[in-house]
Write a structure and sequence with these properties.
Length: 244
């Protein structure tokens, strides 16, 4: 019997903190003294507290009212534009209907833009506007949607500038701090795991059965989630390569 392996470096920040929190709480529940890891746990605790501080700072710096409002603004413009084209697909003037149908195809190619992640939405809006202006200029004129595209572009550029400013001033520094803190926590975590695995060999399994059972159940769950995400990312990468 031993504690399973988990690739902590593959966990996202929130996942990593949640995993470490569960680990800490399980040790407190069963007591460090009973597990024979008091010195190692005392060394772990201040490092865990550092990660707690870092993750709180990440949350505050990454998710702001200004960023959320800016994203909502471009989403509203995009949805208004998309609704206008959808309605024009049923226009009584044949030329308008045909132009709208061609523009609708371009919109469909880009998927549900408003539902994408921040960076992917920014890129998708740039691609959509560029394609319409370059290859469907006549349809843009026929439908009179230049104003919609200009407004969407302005909204998108405003969001992107705000996002870049956040990354430049706060988030990069915070992410670097988070990376360092995580490495320190992981080292302390592995010291505890190695200690318990060694004690199991020396003292037998009885005193560690509950701890190992609960830890391995959690590790299994996290490893499954990691495998699913890795498989999804690999599949998406292959699809992108096939498009090139």
């Amino acid at each position: 019997m031993k504690i399973f392996e988990i690739n902590l470096s593959r966990l996202q920040n929130e996942e990593h903190f949640k995993y470490q929190t569960g680990f800490k709480e399980l040790i407190i529940k069963l007591t460090p003294a009973a597990l024979g890891i008091e010195p190692q746990f005392l060394a772990y605790l201040p490092l865990y507290d550092n990660e707690c501080d870092a993750i709180d700072y990440v949350r505050k710096s990454d998710i702001t009212d200004a960023l959320t409002d800016s994203d909502a603004g471009r989403d509203n413009t995009y949805r208004g534009f998309a609704d206008y084209i959808k309605s024009a697909c049923n226009h009584y003037i044949p030329e308008m209907k045909q132009a709208a149908s061609r523009v609708q195809i371009v919109i469909d190619e880009h998927g549900n833009i408003a539902a994408k992640t921040y960076d992917k939405e920014t890129a998708a809006i740039i691609s959509l506007i560029s394609k319409l202006n370059q290859h469907y200029a006549d349809d843009v004129t026929t439908l009179g949607i230049a104003g919609w595209l200009n407004e969407l572009q302005a909204n998108n550029e405003s969001f992107d500038q705000l996002m870049n400013n956040r990354y430049t001033k706060e988030t990069i520094k915070t992410q670097l701090r988070m990376k360092t803190v995580r490495l320190e926590v992981d080292d302390a975590y592995r010291s505890i795991i190695d200690r318990i695995n060694a004690l199991i060999i020396v003292n037998g399994e009885a005193d560690y059965k509950e701890f190992v059972g609960e830890m391995n159940e959690r590790i299994d769950r996290y490893n499954i989630n990691l495998s699913v995400r890795l498989g999804r990312n690999t599949s998406e990468k292959k699809k992108e390569e096939q498009k090139v």
